[in-house]
Amino acid sequence: MSAMPTATDLGKHPVGPVRLEARYDAGLSRWLWLVKWLLAIPHFIVLAFLWVGVLLVTFVAFFAVLITGSYPRLLFDFNVGVLRWSWRVEYYAYGALGTDRYPPFSLGDVPDYPARLEIAYPEHLSRGLVLVKSWLLVLPQLLVAALMSGGYRFNGGLTGLLTFYAGVSLLFTGRYPRGMYDLNIGLHRWVARVMAYGLLLTDVYPPYRLDQGEREPSG
Length: 219
Description:
It contains 8 helices and 2 strands. By secondary structure, the chain is mainly alpha-helical. The protein has a two-stranded antiparallel sheet. α6 runs parallel beside α7 (about 155-175) and α7 runs antiparallel to α8 (about 180-200). The radius of gyration is 18 Å and the shape is globular.
């Protein structure tokens, strides 16, 4: 008979393929957030074209997975790169207002930037699962993601409200309330997992679990 799991075991979570992390900055400008909509316009323009590319790449990847059971690495890296770039812009601008450091124009990982996203490359993906992941299985999670963020890249929902209140707090007190920050990052982490699943980047279904704070749970 196997031993019963301890309370510590029950509190642990398996490490997932999607890792969204951030670094809390206690020294944010009181006023810079008021003009970030203007400063981030070049990124918004580039990302609009890149997300068209994501849709096209995902269409091609669908057939590649269906036929071969694998996601072509170059296509995978492109889609992950766009998600990573988008997260940096969200973190800088009105998804989180988490940093005043201007995001780089890059699909690659920038280790010293305070917002990072990584998705483990799957050596094999289910050929059958790919037929239902992005339109059926992900639907309940998409509804949750819409509530959280108004859709992945629209700065609405709960994340939009939290970011607005964070901006007001910065303006009047010069600080970003830590509890509000941790909750906001947790919401973005949930949405990132949903997007990775919906874009066929993983077969691991997103957990209905809010992991708050700067770092992913380590297990």
